[in-house]
Every structure is written in structure tokens, then in C-alpha cells.
Fold this protein.
Amino acid sequence: LDTLKQRVYTVHTELVNQGSPISAKILKNSIQLTPKNGKSLIEAFEYKKKQLKELGQTGSHKKYVTIQSHIINFLKHQYSKIDIPLTELKLQFIKEFVHYLKTEGGISHNTSRGYMKQLKAISQLAEDNEWIEKNPFKRFTMKEHEVDKVVLTEAELKKIEDKEIEIERLNEIKDAFLFACYTGLAYVDLEKITLDEMVSLPDGKQMIITRRTKTETKAKIYLSKKALAIIEKYRTHPICERSRKLLPMKSNQKYNAYLKEIQTLCGIDKNLTSHVARRTYGTILLNNNIRLETVQKALGHKTLEQTQEYAKLLDGTIADELSKLDGKL
């Protein structure tokens, strides 16, 4: 505190000698330890977001908006600041931020790991632009924790299909969830998909050709009779008529909350989420011997490795195949 006080007096004297205007704000800005030609952490985020916005990469832009808000909250919590010079982005800062996300933020290990990928990209951007001398992430690793991923069996999916629900709001969510199971679309894509993205093939069958919001990759999705029946059901719904959207989607919070009610009504002992629907679609395709490369295109995965993760969920298929072999033996 004594050092800071002395710094204020020194800067004040310098401003008086220069004949410069003096105010509390000018004094505060003058004693910040940001290099004159340097960039701050939040400035680097704004630079990255501007680039993504100009490129039309809305999915990636949203990710950086989210982590920036976590960074700002962390700076307030840990340092009582709203920004820091990029030169203070050290390994210790990174470790403290991870700890904050998991404790104060209540965020899981794997989600925190995802946020660190964005912060690492900011750090690399800073090094590439010579805003910092060395990327601190070169000494940081964070391995993914393996978790049990929930997927519905075809029997459980049929149980949801056959369940009669009279409450309109739950019926709409049930149909949206089933549509996701038939198409593999994530919530964010379900919410934005429109009739304009439906394409008729020469044989009369229909597909959805869209770009996934999360990865900006193109997804080509064949529309089964069940999926088309749901689209037709809501074609005259006021929300769909007004917006040309395929489904009258609720907010993500309501979608997941109502899914919990449907889960109870259907007697399903699994936590239903939009991710469960997407995984169910992928595993059903693989269950029915659809080639891995085709499933990759349908899901809009960037790499085949992502699709191979779905193959790991096929324990039921393995058991069925082995039981057939047991019968033959």
C-alpha cells in the first residue's frame, strides 16, 4: 500500500510538471502496470471475438463470449480487477483459473478443460502477435476424464414414442426430443433449423442439409418417415408458421427441465438430455450397420475419431452378437 501511495504521488508530480490534466480516473489509469504498447487479456478476447464475428463463426464466437465472462468473474473474485495485462498470464494464473472454475464456478472437469482450450488459443494468439514473449500453456496439460455416456436402447426409445402425453408443453418437448433421436441434431441446431434447409432428392425422399452451430461443419441428414411426421405435425403451429422453423422449441433451460418430467412419466431410469438424443441417433445408425464414414457426415463430425467414440457405446450390440454366436456353438 505504501508503494502504491508513493506511485500515486510520483505520477501526480509528473502530470503537474507536464501541465497535463489531472483527475481520479487519469491517476488510476496512469498507475496501472500495463505496458504502454501492450495488450490486456480482455482486449485479446475482444480481438479474437471480432475476428470470429467477421468470419461468421457464430458458434465459436459464443464459446469465447462464455469463457470471457468466466475470466472477468475470476479476475473480480481472485484479484479484485476487471482486466490484467497479458504479461500477467502465467502458469500460476492458469492453474488458479481451473481451480476457480471447478470450485466457485461449479463446472465439471471436462467442461473446464474445454474452456482452457479457448484460453490456450488466446494465449497462442498473443504469442503469434508478439504481445507476449512466451505462451504459458506450453507447460500446462489437462487430461480428459472418462465418463459414462448415456444412450437409449431402441426399446427405451420405443417406450417414449408410445407414451401418450396430454399436456401440450410436454408433448412438444417429447416430439423435439424424438426428432433429435431421428436426426442427431443438437439443441442449438434444433432451435434454429428452418424449412429452407430441407432438400428434396430426385427419388422424392427428403434431407436436411445444414451447418452445425458448434463446429460449422456441414451435416447431411436423411429424414425418416417418423421425422417427417413430426415436421408435418407442427407445420401449421403459430411459431413455425411465423418463423419457418421446423419445431416450436422452448428455451434450453425449459427443454431440459421438461425432459425430466417426460423421463419420469415414461419410467426411464436414465437422465434425458439433448446430448442423449444425439448419441442415440449415432448408435442406432451404427447398430444397423451404417458405415462409420456415413455416420460421421450425418452427425457433422469434423473427424472420424469423434464418430468412433459412439462405437464405444454399443455394449448392447456386442452382447447381442455374442449371444448369437453362443447359440450357433
Remarks:
- The first strand starts at residue 198 and ends at 200.
- The chain has 16 helices and three strands.
- The mean pLDDT is 85.
